[in-house]
UniProtKB/TrEMBL annotation:
Designated name of the protein: U-box domain-containing protein
Reaction(s) catalysed (UniProt annotation): S-ubiquitinyl-[E2 ubiquitin-conjugating enzyme]-L-cysteine + [acceptor protein]-L-lysine = [E2 ubiquitin-conjugating enzyme]-L-cysteine + N(6)-ubiquitinyl-[acceptor protein]-L-lysine
GO CC terms in record: cytoplasm
Keyword Isomerase: yes
Gene Ontology biological process: cellular response to misfolded protein; positive regulation of proteolysis; proteasome-mediated ubiquitin-dependent protein catabolic process; protein polyubiquitination; protein quality control for misfolded or incompletely synthesized proteins
Molecular-function GO terms, alphabetical: peptidyl-prolyl cis-trans isomerase activity; protein-folding chaperone binding; ubiquitin protein ligase activity
Organism domain of life: Eukaryota
Domain U-box: 209-282
Ranges occupied by TPR repeats: 5-38
Record flagged with keyword Transferase: yes
Length: 286
């Protein structure tokens, strides 16, 4: 059965490369029926299901794959993306950080570090934004009610698109384009709404953000003493030094790097200092 499962997997890979997600998922499913103990088949199917936006199915596949193989970077990576898609940022952050740790500590998988770090940062932003939404709701009940109304409208529009797609009125590509347009429009309306309230009450409802370039790519915390590498990547001094003691390579690019090649990033350190001075208190919640 194992050799048949391998043939089905290869067939699924061919469909995946062509962007034929449903066909790929079907092949991986058939392969799993032939060899249900192979964890890699579940991650392959999870990746296809990510493309199909079958979030719960992705989560199920990833958890099954992890049960079969604990040190499973891809499963945690796909799991984080699905958890993020269903608005579970805390769980997504945990999964993404697990994938990142596996990635940077494995010579064979570190080429994915930059990609995984972006998912970590997206998860952390989503977690931060969820807390910000709750803070703003407490500051302004009206803002909360209006945001709830926009969210209900978005969900209704997405449900209508799904219904039309299920009845064959929309093709897969057209449905995806309409979903993206609805989500983008909803996000724009929320942004405009918050900006309006922020102008009216900047002290309590003003937007609080942490720029990506101030965040360390190893710990994903705001930097205090950033240094820059010869490749142009910036890290918190203490964390990159600890990393280099274990592995003399840039954690994102995997190019050779030593402690002596680190240089202070003076401009970035000034920006970090200004952030802390202007926003004492809340930046520590990041």
């Amino acid at each position: 059965m194992a050799h048949i499962a391998e043939q089905l997997k290869q067939k699924g890979n061919e469909h995946f490369k062509k962007g034929e997600w449903q066909e790929a998922e079907a092949c991986y499913s058939q392969a799993i029926q032939k060899n249900s103990s192979n964890p890699l088949l579940y991650t392959n199917r999870a990746n296809a299901r990510l493309k199909l936006e079958l979030w719960q199915e992705v989560i199920d596949d990833c958890l099954r794959s992890i049960d079969l193989m604990r040190d499973n970077m891809k499963a945690y990576f796909y799991l984080a993306q699905a958890q993020l898609a269903i608005n579970h940022p805390n769980e997504a952050l945990t999964s993404a950080l697990t994938a990142y740790e596996m990635c940077v500590n494995s010579k064979g998988q570190t080429s994915s570090a930059a990609t995984i770090s972006q998912v970590v940062l997206r998860s952390k932003k989503a977690k931060w934004e969820a807390r910000e939404r709750e803070r703003l709701r407490k500051q302004s009940a009206l803002l909360g009610e209006l945001e709830d109304s926009l969210e209900r409208s978005k969900k209704a529009d997405l449900a209508d698109i799904d219904e039309r797609a299920s009845q064959g009125e929309l093709g897969a590509v057209a449905a995806e384009e309409e979903r993206a347009a609805v989500v983008e429009a909803a996000e724009r309306k929320v942004e405009e709404l918050r900006n309006t309230f922020a102008l009216a009450d900047p002290k309590n409802v003003g937007k609080r953000e942490v720029p990506d370039y101030l965040v360390d790519n190893i710990t994903f915390e705001i930097m205090h003493d950033p240094v820059i590498t010869k490749n142009g990547n910036s890290y918190e001094r203490a964390t990159i030094i600890e990393h280099l003691k274990r592995s003399p390579t840039d954690p994102l690019t995997r190019e050779s790097l030593t402690i002596d090649e680190l240089r202070p990033n003076i401009a970035l350190r000034q920006a970090c200092t200004e952030l802390f001075e202007q926003h004492r208190g809340w930046v520590y919640d990041w």
